[in-house]
Amino acid sequence: MPTTSKPARPAKWNADRLPDLTGRTAVVTGANSGIGLAAAGALARAGAHVVFAVRDPERGRAAAAAVSGSTEVRRLDLADLASVRAFAEGWEARPLDLLINNAGVMMLPEQRTKDGFEMQFGTNHLGHFALTNLLLPYVTDRVVTLSSGAHRFGDGVIRFDDLNLTSGYTPVRAYAQSKLANLLFTLELQRRLTESGSPVRALAAHPGYAATNLQSHAASRVSRLVMSLGNRLIAQDDKAGALPTLYAAVQDLPGASYVGPDGLGEMRGAPTLVSRSAAASDPAAARRLWTVSEELTGVSFPLGAANGVGAGRA
Questions:
Q1: Residue 88 region by backbone torsions, left for phi larger than 0, else alpha for psi between -120 and 50, else beta
Q2: What pLDDT is recorded for position 225?
Q3: pLDDT (0 to 100) of residue 308
Q4: Is 175 one of the catalytic residues?
Q5: Lower CB count within 10 Å: N or C terminus of the chain?
Q6: 42/18 Cα distance (integer angstroms)
Q7: How many CA atoms lie within 13 A of 140 on its CB side?
Q8: % of the chain with per-residue pLDDT over 70
Q9: Annotated catalytic residue, options 138, 175, 209, 247
Q10: What is the mean pLDDT of residues 172-191?
Q11: Nearest one of 234, 220, 221 to 264, comparing CA atoms
Q12: For position 148, what pLDDT does the model report?
């Protein structure tokens, strides 16, 4: 009897399937290490000119030198709003196809940004909030912001009455709040982009459990040991962790989409659309967070003003 063979399963999406990005420009925050470096390297190899937006330019130059493709390095400290403004003011009004809000800090001991904000909320959310709005007049395609499955941890809400968590700070609670803020920011940014008639899309992604240097900065020794063990036994590498970012950056996806790994518990695997918590889908909370973020940073949504440009300068 003739044998019938099953049709081959289509290969899962990976960085080899990036389109030709020649002529396009991308900014990647925190591009000097981890999934930021992996994403920046993949974009550069696909032809994009990649700007490494990093706190330490010397480390950034060392990282960029190891990447094949067109790169440049610019200083950006997301924990210092003056640095964020300086980065945006130095952009020279050229088109920016892709902004990847990748940089972040994770489960730190309690500390403050230069402007007095709780470090994780200030860096992971407020710094990127200000950067995005200041650069938005130049963005032509999309903004991808990195969140985490940890947005479900802790209280699972934004503590609007105590954003700095001065009462009851824990590293996990602060990290979870900042990652929830990333998703609410994406939701409200997309609403505003749509309302203003902009073709730019806002998307979010999370890497699953990726082995990076973030885990080495956890507040407690026990947490660092547990994460070190997880890195060895469970985690995927930084290149795999960057795939949801890259997928969100180039695939034709609806605005406000959220991309993560397709494996068990979204810990590892190929990129796919994933769900978020009910709190991360709350449009009222997203609008409230946006208003508070404008007040805290002094930066506002720039589109829809006169000529659609420039209102975000603070």
A1: alpha
A2: 52
A3: 37
A4: yes
A5: N
A6: 8
A7: 9
A8: 86
A9: 175
A10: 97
A11: 234
A12: 96
What's the gap between Cα 220 and its chain centre? 25
Interior/surface letters 11-22, b for 16+ CB within 10 angstroms, e for the rest: eebebeebeebe
Q: What is the mean pLDDT of residues 21-36?
A: 97
Q: Which of 257, 259, 280, 80 is nearest to 179 (CA)?
A: 280
DSSP state of 210: B
Residue 184 CB contacts under 8 Å (≥ 6 apart), including other chains: 158, 280, 282, 285, 286, 289, 290
Continuous H helices in 121-220: 128-135, 171-196
Contact (Cβ atoms closer than 8 angstroms) between residue 18 and residue 48: no
H or E element at residue 288: helix 283-297
What does the mean pLDDT of the chain come to?
90
Mark 161-188 as b/e (b = at least 16 C-beta within 10 Å).
Answer: eebbbeeebebebbbbbbbbbbbbbbbb
pLDDT of residue 210: 80
Measured CA to CA, the distance from residue 9 to residue 26 in angstroms comes to 32
- Which residues, other chains included, contact 130 with Cβ-Cβ below 8 Å and sequence gap of 6+? 81, 84, 85, 297, 299, 314
For the chain, the helix, strand and coil percentages under 3-state DSSP, each to the nearest 5? 45, 15, 40
Mean pLDDT score, 148-170 = 94
Question: How many alpha carbons fall within 13 Å on the CB side of residue 305?
Answer: 12
Instruction: Compute φ and ψ for 130, nearest 5 degrees.
Output: -65, -45
